[in-house]
Design a protein that fits this description.
By secondary structure, this protein is an alpha/beta fold. The chain is about 40% helix and about 20% strand. It has a single domain, classed as Rossmann fold, CATH 3.40.50. It has an eight-stranded mixed beta sheet with strand order 1-2-4-3-5-6-7-8, sandwiched between helices.
């Protein structure tokens, strides 16, 4: 278990296993233990798993203001963790906000990523930063638990108790910070040419999500080396915890990467 200092902010990460580095980045709620509890880490042997608690989450420190959650901060945090872990290049797997962080890292530091898994997050081309900042206000007004429980109630099956409790326990300011990160991210549809590494886009696709699926297919077509895979019938939370559907394409994607010699220790 290790901490890296980022301008006075202590960021926690843990490493397990050996092999090519694979960094896991969670979403607006929860911390890196989600990946272990859900079974992602144990199902993918042969990698050096870097489990990262991003700022404000888990054992990492929290910025004093919402400005500390700008996407550029999240990007530089990932690079600081990779540097500290001795990983010159890594695969990044991100869920929700974590996927958006992955896109931003890939655009700013393409040489640092050997591959990218984006789990259930494709930006809307028509999205306005003001729309995301309304999410900051909603979370701060209602609290983390109310927002997550509303999301869970809209899905076809409830999440496991452990996951619901884990997500709902996230600090409200940290969850609100995710929306600030969304609002300050580089425009995805303008940076697709820069995401040159292999990319897997995994999307939960419910009965009423055909526009969402079409967006994912369009994104895969615009990226230089990408594939979109539908997770049929799944909502946003289900896309994470239904590992019976999410893990097989991730495993296939990772096994197909020509990662080459990487420095790891």
């Amino acid at each position: 278990m290790t901490y890296v200092d980022r301008g006075g902010l202590r960021l926690f990460y843990a490493v397990s296993g050996s092999g090519p580095p694979l960094l896991w980045h969670t979403g607006g709620c929860g911390d890196s233990t989600m990946w272990e509890t859900a079974g992602y880490v144990s199902a993918l042997p042969g990698y050096r798993h870097i489990l990262f608690d991003h700022r404000g989450h888990g054992r990492s420190g929290a910025p004093a203001t919402i400005a500390g959650h700008r996407m550029s901060c999240y990007v530089d945090d990932v690079i600081a963790v990779l540097d500290d872990a001795g990983a010159e290049r890594a695969v990044l797997a991100g869920y929700s906000l974590g996927a958006r962080v992955g896109y931003a890292v890939a655009a700013a530091y393409p040489q640092r990523l050997a591959g990218l898994v984006g789990l259930d997050s494709i930006p809307d081309p028509a999205a306005d930063p003001a729309d995301w900042r309304s999410g900051v206000d909603k979370v701060m007004a209602e609290g983390t638990a109310a927002v997550i429980e509303e999301m869970a109630a809209a899905e076809s099956e409830p999440p496991p108790t452990w996951l619901l409790e884990h997500l709902c326990g996230t600090d409200t300011a940290a969850f609100a910070g995710a929306y600030e990160a969304f609002a300050t991210a580089p425009p995805f549809w303008q940076i697709t040419d820069h995401l040159t590494m292999p990319v897997l886009l995994l999307l939960g696709v419910g009965e009423d999500d055909q526009d969402w699926w079409a967006r994912g297919q369009l994104a895969a077509a615009k990226l230089p080396d990408a594939r979109a895979v539908a997770l049929p019938g799944l909502g946003h939370l289900q896309a994470f915890w239904r590992t019976d559907l999410s893990l097989p394409p991730i495993s296939q994607f990772l096994s197909g990467l020509s990662i080459g010699p990487l420095p790891w220790r």
